[in-house]
Design goal:
Blueprint: E1 5-7, E2 12-14, H1 24-32, E3 40-45, H2 51-59, E4 63-69, H3 72-83, E5 91-95, E6 107-112, H4 126-132, H5 139-149, E7 150-161, H6 165-175, E8 178-186, E9 195-201, E10 209-214, E11 216-218, E12 221-222, H7 224-230
Parallel strand pairs: 3-4, 3-6, 4-5, 6-7, 8-10
Antiparallel strand pairs: 1-2, 7-9, 8-9, 11-12
Length: 236
């Protein structure tokens, strides 16, 4: 990885104009989130560089993917990345606030790597604050918007810090969502889970699919689980 771009198997993510760079959280979600096979519509909320939108377009070759963000610099960057990808005809990027977003056609799948610093001090860099802090998009607002924009049989997937799980579960329940899949992720085998991948739907599941993943078995050595999950994206 260079500072200004990240080379994946089928696309390049340039990121010099984005506050938040390519990271494990986005890669996890883009590789884990579900969408229907066949023609479908996918929404990426807070698309940033467009990483997750590009990953979903690669994984679901008949999907039309919409990426939205409130940061104009990120929107411009994501558009460039989408246009330079093999999926340019199926990805659209717009400067849109999901809270006020309207769409005549609902989405089959929605993905979001939301801002997650709730109580910490905000950063003096306004662009980075928008990307990192829930002052720009609370979990309540996110859940309301996702429920409104998602089809009845659709999937809504997020990646969040483990400590935020109870909060987002409560907000999801208030809106009428049900948890259908959960994967807690450890960075190494000996560390406590750090991130949580969660999938919500509008109908309850007979049984919640729960699992756990590990990123690295040792420093700079990807675990078999992470290798399998991301194999179609990473070059090495």
């Amino acid at each position: 990885m260079a500072n200004n771009y990240f080379q994946f198997r089928q696309f390049v993510v340039r990121q010099e104009r984005c506050a938040m760079k390519v990271g494990t959280d986005g890669t996890l979600l883009g590789a884990w989130a579900q969408a229907p096979m066949g023609p479908c519509r996918v929404l990426d909320i807070g698309t940033g560089s467009g990483l997750i939108a590009l990953m979903m377009a690669q994984r679901f070759p008949e999907a039309s993917v919409v990426g939205i963000d409130i940061d104009p610099e990120a929107v411009a960057q994501a558009r460039e990345n989408a246009m330079e990808s093999p999926f340019a005809a199926r990805i659209s990027i717009s400067e849109t606030d999901v809270v006020s977003m309207e769409s005549a056609d609902l989405f089959d799948a929605i993905v979001c790597n939301p801002p997650y610093f709730v109580d910490s001090l905000t950063c003096p860099d306004a662009q980075r604050t928008t990307a990192r802090h829930t002052v720009s998009l609370s979990y309540e607002s996110l859940m309301k918007a996702a429920f409104r924009l998602l089809k009845t049989a659709g999937f809504f997937s997020v990646v969040i810090p483990v400590e935020s799980r109870s909060v987002i579960e409560a907000q999801a329940a208030l809106q009428g969502f049900f948890i259908t899949r959960v994967c807690q992720v450890r960075t190494t085998p000996k560390k406590q889970p750090k991130r949580c991948l969660m999938e919500f739907r509008k109908s309850p599941s007979y049984m919640i699919d729960t699992s756990e993943g590990i990123i690295e078995t040792q420093p700079k050595v990807r675990s078999p689980w992470y290798q399998q999950l991301t194999n179609e994206f990473y070059i090495k």
